[in-house]
Amino acid sequence: MTHWFHRNPLKATAPVSFNYYGMITGPPASKICNDLRSARTRLLELFTDLSCFINSVGDSTQESKLRYIQNFKWTDTLQGQVPSAQQDAVFELISMGFNVALWYTKYASRLAGKEKHITEDEAKEVHRSLKIAAGIFKHLKESHIPKLLTPAEKGRDLEARLIDAYVIQCQAEAQEVTIARAIELKHAPGLIAALAYETASFYQKAGFGGNEDRFDSYNEIEMKEDKNCLDSVSYHTLSSLEPAHSAKWRKYLHLKMCFYTAYAYCYHGQTLLASDKCGEAIRSLQEAEKLYAEAEALCKEYGETKGPGPTAKPSGHLFFRKLGSLVKSTLDKCREKTASSNYGIKPKPEEEVKPVKEPDIKPQKDTGCSVS
Fold first, then answer.
1. How far is 342 from 36, CA to CA, in rounded Å?
2. Which of 134, 294, 318, 346 is the most exposed place for a label (fewest CB within 10 A)?
3. Taking the mean position of all CA atoms in its chain, how far away is CA 266?
């Protein structure tokens, strides 16, 4: 199976025994600790099973008196096996929640990575899972991470820019599902172009921040961003992280940005072609051709870049390969239409100019008269 989405690894954690000798007394307290140890172990096991379903449980606003009794160790998705540690149950809650969100992204990737077309129900499930993941990341950032006494270190999972990158990537990938469905249902090329443009913009923001804009020349399409999704997201994301930790992820985000910008130019070219604007359509499709070639090159670079997470293979996916063929065939149509409109058109022949009949100036018969 080719993998369409890049996925960073799950967070790993050190075992916790919950043996508080001298602090708990009696069988009931011992049973609670044993149940807690078993429940934690079982939850960690579920993260490796993409066929299970995880549902939210009730929440309590009352802080436990035992919040700071246990030290918890968790790795970070971009930092290898060197763990972060905090003696805080909220850190445990956030780290578990982070893994739940990652699980939903991996589950969505498993469904979307099918070589054949996914069904409508599967597409809805992919979309739903990515929305849930984005919601969990956003909730952790807004409601729980601020409660930690020890702020997140630079480049660690709980730092705001990493959370933002995960949120934006989930939004972009959810919109990819919408684009695929719109193409399958043969929606208007203008709509598909606008969706692709916005998706490319999401990937740009996740990987490069909001300062670099590659879309200045693409001013024909009017975009209306979903401000409700993006209000709480700051666009400094991965651009300032150490390359050793983020290079592979950023390379993936870059190739997806190029790929969907190429899609936008391709479908915008179809819109122009339908309006008999062949010259503009050719320019748009030539830009799509250039960006698609760049995306292909980035796929190779991404595959050769070292970094956390298994390597996705977007260039091997049918959806990726189809764009190259579509760009070529649409460009050929534009050129054929341009050529046919210029063939066999002869200038109107000029009207023949007939010579004027000259008067007869031959000498007449001599009459004997003369002019003096």
1. 79
2. 346
3. 17
Smallest CA-to-CA distance from 260 within 333, 172, 188, 174 is with 172
Give me 146's structure tokens. Answer: 């601020």
73 — phi, psi (to 5°)? -120, 130
Closest CA to 308 of 78, 95, 48: 78
Task: Give the whole-angstrom CA distance, residue 127 versus residue 120.
Answer: 11
What pairs with residue 86 in β-bridges? 72
- φ/ψ (deg, to 5) at 13: -140, 150
pLDDT tens digits, residue range 300-353? Answer: 999 999 888 888 888 888 889 999 999 999 999 988 888 877 657 455 667 777
Of 160-169, 247-256, 350-359, least confident by mean pLDDT is 350-359
Helix, strand, or coil here: 307?
A: coil
Q: Compute the residue count for the chain.
A: 372
Under DSSP, the state recorded for 222 is -
Instruction: Calculate the alpha carbon distances from 263 to 42, 192, 277, 317, 335 in Å.
Output: 43, 8, 19, 15, 19
Give strand pairing partners of 13. Answer: 74
Alpha-carbon distance of 23 to 192, in angstroms, equals: 62
- Give the three-state DSSP class for 237: coil
> What tokens were used for 188?
């208007």
Q: How far is CA 264 from CA 5, 270, 327, in A?
A: 20, 10, 11
- Side chain identity at residue 75, one-letter code: T
Are the C-beta atoms of 78 and 29 separated by less than 8 Å? no
